[in-house]
Amino acid sequence: MQLVDIHQVSRSYGPIRALQDVTLSLEPGTIGLVGNNGAGKSTLLKILLGLLPPDTGGGTILGFDICRAARDLRGRVGYMPEAAALVPILKGVEYVTLSGDLYGMPHRDAKRRAHEVLNYVGLGELRYRRLEEYSAGNVQRLKLAAALVHDPQLLLLDEPTNGLDPAGRQSMLRLIDDLISETGKSLILCTHLLGDVERLCEQVVVIDRGTVIRSGTMTDLRQRIANRFELAWQEPEQGRGYREALTAAGVRFTSSFDEPRATVVVPDDWTTRRFFAVAGEVGAVITRLMPEEEDLSRVFFRVTDAGAPAPIVDPPTQDVAHGN
Fold first, then answer.
1. Is the alpha carbon torsion for 132, 117, 186, 7 positive or negative?
2. Ordered alpha helix ranges (H), the chain
3. Low-confidence winner among 155-159, 161-165, 235-239 (lowest mean pLDDT)
4. What is the rounded radius of gyration, in angstroms, for the C-alpha atoms of the chain?
5. Across all residues in the chain, what is the average pLDDT?
6. pTM for the full model?
7. CATH number of 224-293: 2.40.50, 1.25.40, 3.30.70, 2.60.40?
8. How far is it, in rounded angstroms, from Cα 179 to Cα 93?
């Protein structure tokens, strides 16, 4: 069974088109949903959770219809929202218990599980502390505990490291990594931090301005770029004889640095042996020659207009809750 199988899903907020004809077929496992702020990531998560109906299109998640089975989905999916969504008068264990109640658990079971998951995320000693006394890092752990209380099959995590300092971010990533390893749960991680996705996820979906523009495994997307190399060299005297000789041979320099080092694109009929042959002609010595590897960051900037402002925005959580 596919984890997610949706077709032609669109969603608008008045004149603003948040999602446009999104089609996805994802296997169970760990999936990163990445995109610029306002790309439509949170809207897609809420549709998958059954909180928002799509304007058009449909499909399934965990085999349940996203348009008709919202109650069943919320019993099997754990959602960690980006916004804090805390009730300040509550204590930690009361908040997580309330989450279990809302997921449909019997109250006694919800209370028992609240203690278990608070211990699991490292908040056992803070379970009776009021929520307004929690640090930002502990609030994120508390939200994760609330998402886990009913032992869901799938976790939807919306910016789980948002607002954390570097140490807090690494601690949260270790916690999620351990959770995946120990439980084997499927996970959809929604974030604009590409490093989080590279660390945790096996599959990745790139969304830009409401449209899915790339999806696949991390291995497929982080592929070797044909005809691109990282090159460094030394010359016997000051000058650019090797650079000029390579340029004359059809090599294109795409980036350069202060020292004799560059990223180059070679012609289709080029062989690596020719780097050394040209170096020998001008008396240069090659000190580094490596095919360029494309990581997720380069994929993202290659396939999206990452520097441009995106007109599509996800609405504030409170507006969605009130149906505005």
1. negative
2. 41-49, 70-74, 92-102, 107-120, 136-148, 166-183, 194-200, 218-221, 241-248, 272-282, 296-303, 317-321
3. 235-239
4. 25
5. 86
6. 0.74
7. 3.30.70
8. 20
Residue 214 pLDDT greater than 70, yes or no: yes
User: Could you say which DSSP state residue 85 is in?
Assistant: -
- Distance CA(324)–CA(318), nearest Å, equals 9
**304 vs 197, which has greater pLDDT?**
197
| CATH annotation of 4-76+153-221+301-321 | 3.40.50.300
> What b/e sequence results for 227-241 when a residue is b if at least 16 CB atoms lie within 10 Å of its CB, and e otherwise?
ebbebebebeeeeeb
Q: What is the pLDDT, as a whole number, of residue 321?
A: 39
CA atoms within 13 A on the CB side of 145: 31
pLDDT at position 141 is 95
Determine the residue type at 276: F
In terms of Cα–Cα distance, which of 150, 148, 163, 175 is closest to 80?
A: 148
- What's the DSSP call for residue 267? -
Rounded Cα–Cα distance for residues 216 and 288 (Å): 31
Q: Where are the chain's structural domains?
A: 4-76+153-221+301-321, 224-293
**Token digits of residue 242:** 């090797």
| Polymer length of the chain | 324
Q: What is the pLDDT of residues 159-205, one digit of tens each?
A: 999 888 889 999 999 999 999 999 999 999 998 888 889 889 999 99
The Cα–Cα gap between 98 and 90 comes to 10
* Edge-first strand listing for the sheet containing 211-217: 77-80, 154-158, 186-191, 30-34, 203-208, 211-217
Q: Are 26 and 216 in contact (CB under 8 A)?
A: no
